[in-house]
Amino acid sequence: MPIAESAAPIFVTVSRRDVSHRGPPDTLLAGLDGFLPVKDAGLGHVGQDDPLRPATVPLGGREGRQRRTGAEMATRVAMGNNKGGVGKTTVTVRVAEALAVLGKRVLVMDLDPQGNSSGRLGVVGDLGARTVSEAIKENRRGAVADSIWPCGWDAEYASRISVCPSTLDLEDRMSEAGVIGAYRRLAIALDGADDGYDFTLFDCPPSLFHLTQLALAAGPNAVAVTEPEYYSIEGALRFRAFVEAQGTNLSNPELHLIGVIVAGYDVRKPAHVGQLETLPETFGPLLWEPVIPVRTAIQDADESQLPLVAQKSEGGREARAWFGQLAERLIKATS
Q1: CA–CA distance, 321 with 6 (Å, rounded to integer)
Q2: How far apart are CA 50 and CA 63, in angstroms?
Q3: What is the mean pLDDT of residues 215-220?
Q4: Among candidate residues 300, 228, 291, 261, the one with its CA nearest the CA of residue 77
Q5: Closest C-alpha to 231, from 85, 79, 72
Q6: What are the distances in angstroms from CA 25 to CA 19, 20, 29, 217?
Q7: Cβ atoms of residues 78 and 66 within 8 Å
Q8: Residues 28-59: pLDDT tens digits?
Q9: Are 54 and 212 in contact (CB under 8 A)?
Q10: Architecture of the domain made up of 63-333
Q11: Which pLDDT score, from 0 to 100, does residue 160 have?
Q12: Is the pLDDT of residue 13 over 50?
């Protein structure tokens, strides 16, 4: 069944967006209630003189980029959806790979305690205290620099990809959600640590709560990733509504959604075909091309923790081209 939206944000405990859709009532708003800290209180205060407050330069419409006086800060992009299993980690890893192929230096921040993007980028084994969880826990400027690992792939461009990995210990950071200003701890930990990169991509968990809020507070750009499937699209709409409504509460008023990526498209499924036809109306100019179809080469690369260049099949060549186009679209959207 297709999904359409209407109406503007309304504010309750956590802002909700009233979205009319043809489906079960209330499902689109499920999960939006949650903790958002008090703005401009304690550690959450961001004043004009705060060195962590980046200067942002909007470029018109829904697209923009982030700059800071002095050392060049990476363009930060949070990849998210309120539903799991939509291909978000695959898209994050493969867009990072495509950016590296284009000569960009990329830092992938794994904010999902499952650690799938870390593993797919070849960062496995005993990580000790060098994880994103420890960097956030320290609440120290630049702490992420101590938790950055090189990509483990055997590919020339892999040297341009770095990873701040996660383990199940990242779940421990959820207990800090009630601490005033805790949502800024990742922004603090990243301060200066990603200045040498062109892009920092956050692989967010399938949630709108504390771990995702850490990413959304750290940079102005967000991208929704979805399958052309009813509940996946609902999750993307929830993510968009949250991004559009909560930037100010996260001390990040420039936060906005710059794009929607569709992955996992299976032409053999009539439901996918039908939903894909409705997406231009649902997301308008935010919808990016190309749509990423299901390909064995992508699945094999993910499961084998290998780069796409290792897939010599026609499907592997197609996948590299598709993700290359998405990487170019991301560069354009943030330039």
Answers
A1: 35
A2: 25
A3: 98
A4: 261
A5: 85
A6: 10, 9, 9, 30
A7: no
A8: 323 333 434 333 333 333 333 333 333 332 22
A9: no
A10: 3-Layer(aba) Sandwich (3.40)
A11: 98
A12: no
Query: In sequence order, what are the beta bridge partners of 9?
Result: 17
Q: Which residue has the higher pLDDT, 5 or 296?
A: 296
Rounded to the nearest 5°, which phi and psi values hold at 130? -95, 70
Token pair recorded at residue 184: 């800024």
Say how far apart CA 152 and CA 118 lie, in whole Å: 10
Angle at 326 between CA 242 and CA 148, to 5 degrees: 75
CB 209 within 8 A of CB 112: no
Angle between helices 88-101 and 314-333 (to 10 degrees): 80
Both ends of the chain: CA-CA distance in Å? 36
Instruction: Outline where the chain has alpha helix (H).
Output: 88-101, 116-120, 132-138, 185-190, 210-218, 230-246, 270-283, 296-304, 314-333
With contact defined as beta carbons under 8 Å apart, do 202 and 166 qualify?
no
Residue 321: count other Cβ atoms within 10 Å of its Cβ: 12
Query: Which residue type occupies 187?
Result: A
Which residues face 162 on adjacent strands? 107, 150
Running DSSP on this structure, what letter comes out for residue 112? S
Residue holding tokens 């560069």?
331
Query: Under a CB-based contact definition with an 8 Å cutoff, are residues 6 and 241 in contact?
Result: no
Instruction: Name every residue whose Cβ is closer than 8 Å to that of residue 208 and which is 6 or more positions away in sequence.
Output: 31, 32, 34, 82, 238, 239, 242
Residue 106 is classified by DSSP as E
pLDDT interval class at 72 (50, 70, 90): confident
pLDDT of residue 183: 96
Distance CA 157, CA 230 (A): 37
Beta strands at 16-17 and 9-10: parallel, antiparallel or unpaired: antiparallel
